[in-house]
Amino acid sequence: MLVVTVDNPPVNAASADMRQGLFAAIDHAATADEIIGVVITGAGKTFVGGADIREFGKPMAEPLLPQLVNHIEASEKPVVAAINGAALGGGLEIALGCHHRIAAPVAKLGLPEVKLGIVPGAGGTQRLPRLAGVVAAAEMAATGRMVGAEEARALGIVDAVADGDLVASAVAAARDLAGRPPRRTGGLPVPAVDGEAFDRMATKVLTCARGQDAPGEALRLIRSAADRGLAEGLVDERATFIRLRDSEQAKALRHVFFAERAAAKVDGLEGIEPLWVAHIGIVGLGLMGSGIAIAALDAGYAVTGVETTAEAAAKGRERIAGLLDRNVASGRLDAAGREKRLARLTVSDRMEDLAEVDLVIEAVFDDLKVKTELFKRLDASVRPDAILATNTSYLDPDVLAAATLRPERVVGLHFFSPANIMRLVEVVRCAKTAPDVLATGLAVAKRLGKLPVVSGVTEGFIGNSIFSAYRREAEFLLEDGALPQEIDAAMESYGFAMGPFAVFDLTGLEIAWARRKRQAATRDPNERYVEIADRLCEAGRFGQKAGRGWYAYPDGKRTVDREVTALIEAARAKKAIVPRPIEADEIVSRLLGAMAAEGDRLLANRIAQRASDIDLVMINGYGFPAHKGGPMFAAGRT
Ligand code: 3H9
Predict the structure, then answer these.
(1) Distance CA 92, CA 14 (A)
(2) Model pLDDT for residues 211-223, shown as the tens digit of each residue
(3) Is the pTM of this model over 0.85?
(4) Catalytic (active site) residue 237
(5) Active-site residue, selected from the candidate residues 55, 62, 76, 93
(6) Tens digit of each residue's pLDDT (9 = 90 or more) over 241-261
(7) Which of 75, 158, 222, 620 could form a disulfide with 101 if both were Cys (CB 3.0 to 4.6 A apart)?
């Protein structure tokens, strides 16, 4: 038996050397009489992490991945995949080319290519439906969803889940299969398709994929596998893969992929170990605090939540339990998981109950006086080595740090609402934050399943600084001649799920109004200032919750409101601005330009370490379409 272990760190990607090595191993097995079969497995945590994304866009050395997979499948001797960990993209395609698949219980299988703006290019769209059926295969390939070992077995993607030694089981299976005609996935018929179930799934997937090309192409390729032969399907798949691989969307999504890995590399933290955190305190159990609590409980932390009164604390606990109930109802959590989480949660109205925690995250009302007082009290209540984190969006965390005797142990952890769902956390490096405290902020956010991005201190940090510039330019556009609905439509057709004015209405207009009032005294009188939003607020139009904002919401439905149009016209007239029609292209380019210019300012002031960090913030916190790569990436391409 020939056991081939793919050992190509960090993720055993199918780079040129790896493909050549595996191809040669199959050749060797074919000619060596003493070899009766082959087992392919991976070293470390991955089986094969997929094609080597770094090779995309460069000339490719043979054998190409499809040639390798065909070669494996064509082997006369049995080839068994011993899937020890992640088998993703080209990794799963290699496994599908094998004649038998055994997975370790920890294995994860998937076709995540759509997340890179492409479709599988080495037979995945044609072989997966032959094992899992068209609907399941199409759902996996069009969403990039990974499945665990048990689900893969239930779907027919793997033949068995090993309960003991994986490679030994695979060797035994290969021995069993030796001498018999191999079961080639490509030779299997595609099971009959339930057309209605396919259409239902496809509609759902396409709604989420708005604007992206790859998911629709994955659906098409897999759906048509049922109606044509393997060879024809593979030719179409390959052509589609190459076309998408060279597309702007794929370039943008590859940028995002590498940006996420780059964000973890923070200047000044080389070799710095994070501190041990097992118990997290959360002050304020409102919407934000409860969301953070859920994320912390999900990640296995013990959580102590503190509120101002016993009644508020009990309410906080109820809110958290309610969120857990929702997860149980949607099938994301089982009853035992809910109980385990609640057992790790304590709520209280006494600061002293935070005496043992390793890290406190405050999530109270964003008011400087309230937060400064709170930081003083926390400083006196928690262990001297505990970390104090603020979730402020706009206040200066250096002022909060200065209120304590431990400024080096203060950091910002800026979550986005709802905090149990949104992936972004801005980890704010304050003037005196110690490197191991910053590293701890990053490590905790990562363990919470978040994408942490480091920001320096400036009003609004990275995200809200850029969002303010976006807001300002959107308001200039209003004065210049565009209407909210035109601006929203332009940004939605660019790829945002919601245009800026719909977002302002959703999040509420009061906070920005309060900020503008605060800034009024120091505002440069020569600076262009648009008063329309102030007029709306003065009229009580605070957004969707108030039933009226930039739009009206009769029966909850967003509707253009003539009163708003009149306010805008009056504001233009007051400044003697003659409005002109503004095309969607100009709207998009001015708004993107404003974001990128603010991004340049943040880079120049070292608030952001790299342009791609800014892109991640805007994609994961503010709905910037990932397939456009973020404002900084987009600016470099127009
Ligand atoms: C494909 O397969 C196309 C085929 O259908 C058709 C071809 C013809 N290539 O994520 P981590 C690097 S498309 C190159 O932190 P983890 C990554 O940049 C591919 N490099 O590890 C990082 O480098 P650095 C389909 C890759 O343990 C390091 O590995 N496959 C690749 O948290 C560690 O990465 C995918 O989309 C790659 N494919 O998670 C899978 N993957 O240290 C993408 C990773 O220099 N990968 N790197 O910053 C993943 O989802 C995760 O990396 C994985 C491990 C789950 C495997």
Answers:
(1) 11
(2) 899 999 999 999 9
(3) yes
(4) no
(5) 93
(6) 999 999 999 999 999 999 999
(7) 158
